[in-house]
Amino acid sequence: MLxxxxxxxxxxxxxxxxxxxxxxYYLVMEELRASGAPITEHAPDPMPREWLEAVHxxxxxxxxxxAEVPREKERRIGFPVTPHIASRVRHTNGGTWLAAQLAxxxxxxxxxxxxxxxxxxxxxxGYCVFNDLAVASNRLIAQGDASRILIVDLDVHQGDGxxxxxxxxxxxxxxxxxxxxxxxxxxxxxSRDIGLQDGTDDDGYMEVLERELPALLDAFAPxxxxxxxxxxxxxxxxxxxxxxxxxxxxxxxxxxxxxxxRRGLPVAxxxxxxxxxxxxxxxxxxxxxxxxxxxxxxxxxxxxxGR
Length: 307
Hints:
The protein is of the alpha/beta class. It is 41% helix and 13% strand. It is built from ten helices and eight strands. It has an eight-stranded parallel beta sheet with strand order 2-1-3-8-7-4-5-6, sandwiched between helices. Helix 8 packs parallel to helix 9. The longest helix is centred in the first third of the chain and has 24 residues.
């Protein structure tokens, strides 16, 4: 059973400025519903303002809520923050929180949006408005659902915002495996950064992931894994510089889930990046990613959850 978090507001009307395409968010759900796989959909509540303000600058949160984000910040985000976008990002952030709650019950759950790892303290960036990974992590720890959280970021772009927002914490560990020469030009410092060379293929990628992740899980001993499962390391991705295949992405995703679940850890994934001229193909990659992780999760009894 795939437990997937989705909300109608994820498909906010496309703003009149900016190049970001929102089509993939409904295409992902179309692919999942047409797959024939057992799926349960869950609708998130909007992320409470005080949870956002615990991580982001309150003045910036106010700008987003009022849809009055300064033009220079909107340029950095990549699109204007309209009232529809403001509602959308509250729900996508609430979605990652809900996916974490569901993962702790079922072993694995997915948010069909978010993974907004470029958003910083007082501004958004790189198509990201609020950083759902940092906000959800902070809240999970604040209310006692977890004491240590591992954020595994396998998007083709470094998770610079997540790294910056969690840099002073020893209870949140950020692992970012990304294309070294891709955006952002100026990298932040994650707890562990691995920059890959352009054209890294399935074998080269898995060699790194298999070396790094198991050792990190054992050394850091988190209570939950939040996984930024961007599909933009694919060789055909418009904004990627790596060369993974469909089979390579599936191998990557199954490995993350299997390594966590065999240690009794829940995994909550957020959608992350994926770009191309044919949005349906991108949607298919995201859907395949979630279905593969749900399939891998079924190998591990829910009774294993908890340390």
